[in-house]
Amino acid sequence: MNFKHLHYFWATAKAGGIMRAGEQLNITPQTLSGQIKLLEERLGCTLFRKSGRRLELTEEGRTALGYADQIFGLGAEMEAAIGHARAGGQVLDFRVGIADAVPKSIAYRLLEPALDVPLPVRLICHEGKFQDLLGQLAIQRVDLVIADEPMNKQMSVKAFNHALGSTSMSFYCTPALRKTLKGRFPHNLDGAPMLVQGSASAVRQRMELWLTERRIHTRTVGEFDDAALMKAFGREGRGVFMSPTVLEAETCEQYGVKVLGRTDELVEEFFAVSVERRITHPCVAAITQAARGRLFSAPASQLGPRSRTR
């Protein structure tokens, strides 16, 4: 069997289609289709069938995918094991996918420990949509994905979630805007101009439910996939925005804003997703240990009094 053909089939199944797999593998859809056709001829069966504009795995395709998962999973483990053993005089490449909903400051804090392992490390970061990064993880283009949500069980990617920690959320605005808001937090958010995370953000969805439960109606004036851009608008007094409490001091200093209020009832969670059930990669181990040990455990004295909203 030509394992190159098998790898193309595997990548297509993981990506959910020829077009996306072609983009990930940097080859044309025509070439990819041709290589999969050769594999089907070798196996004597059809691996995909069309369902509208999408491709679905046949029964034989699902069987083949199960074996391909094992084959390429073992290949990744072998590559990692040999690479780690020989890394004494070599640079260890650590390729990370960062979901675009993860704040840059959080991403930096999470990744920084990887550069402190007792090996020369070259950190290679890619930012993108969570599902696209999982596709990259499935074909070993990245070693780890960091996101603000776990990979759900419906995904066809064989990978494992590692909880890194969580932080409560704070609301910020300029002093001038604060003077226009009436009442105590969180009721002073009623009618307030809001700058919010993109609709795909997990914490945005939690915030909307939290506001609805309290019958608080805000006025959305901006929606952003990029948290830094959202805060830049907040710095100019365009609206109230929400950001992790663990970043309070940094956010206030950098953007000239004040804390309007904070709540333990809204949290943002962070996860590392890898193909390893048991963490062996030294960089991944350093990240998980540091996150659980210090990143999300800021002393309460640094945060001041916490507003309750019950």
Low-confidence stretches: 298-310
- Output the structural class: alpha/beta
Mean pLDDT score, rounded? 84
How big is the Rg? 23 Å
The coarse overall form would be elongated
- How many helices in DSSP terms? 11
Chain oligomer state: single chain
Number of E-state strands: 10
Query: Helicity level, as a percent range?
Result: 40-55%
Widest sheet: strand ordering: 4-3-5-10-6-9-7-8
Strand count, sense and barrel status of the largest sheet are: 8 strands, mixed
Order of helices and strands: HHHEEHEHEHEEHEHEHEHEH
> What is the terminal-to-terminal distance?
63 Å
- The portion of residues forming beta strands comes to 15-25%
Describe what this molecule looks like in 3D.
The chain has helices spanning 3-15, 18-25, 29-43, 59-85, 104-111, 130-138, 175-178, 202-213, 227-235, 248-255, 282-295, and strands spanning 48-51, 54-57, 92-99, 121-128, 144-147, 160-173, 193-197, 219-224, 240-244, 258-274. By secondary structure, the protein is an alpha/beta fold. Helix content is 41%, strand content 24%. It is elongated and about 70 Å long.
